[in-house]
Design a protein that fits this description.
5-stranded antiparallel beta sheet; 3 helices; globular; disordered N terminus; disordered C terminus
Length: 159
């Protein structure tokens, strides 16, 4: 079992709401809704830090990224509506990519409902190819998601 106070110093924890239309026919959070909880939680975290869209325009070039891969391991059902927490940790920070480890946990932090990882790559909108993260974005990612220098790639490392 996970204790939220134990992980608060090393993970970024974002609350998420489970709504009635997120449930399957048994009253559990549908497996297809877990990715949306993760996505929405990440968007809120980055938006509070100034990385968002205003009237359809990105507030920073590093807002434009693509998800390369997401994996989920389902551990325990979320039963009914209410609040859960999505916990993130930066697993890898490359030149143009980031990999987050995440967990969806009960509001009290006692139950892990799902866990997995999410890889993203920064996109240059002119070429539609990968683009290096800005230094400010790299620093912010490490601050937001509890990364240590040994947990990430060097700023000029590939990927």
């Amino acid at each position: 079992m996970v204790n939220a106070p134990e992980v608060a110093g090393v993970e970024c924890i974002e609350p998420a709401e489970v709504h009635l239309d997120d449930l399957d026919f048994m009253g559990n959070l549908h497996n297809g809704r877990f990715p949306m909880l993760v996505e929405r939680a990440l968007v809120r975290i980055w938006a509070r830090a100034g990385y968002s869209f205003v009237e359809g325009v990105p507030t920073h070039p590093d807002v434009m990224h693509a998800v390369l891969e997401q994996t989920f391991r389902y551990r325990s059902p979320v039963r009914g509506v209410g609040r859960v927490n999505v916990c993130f940790r930066l697993q890898h920070l490359g030149k143009s990519s980031m990999v987050y480890a995440f967990r969806v946990v009960s509001e009290d932090g006692e139950t892990v409902h799902a866990e997995g990882s999410r890889a993203e790559v920064n996109i240059d909108m002119a070429s539609l190819g990968s683009a290096p993260w800005a230094d400010a974005t790299r620093d912010l990612a490490c601050n937001l998601f509890g990364a240590s220098p040994e947990g990430t790639a060097a700023p000029n490392a590939a990927g």
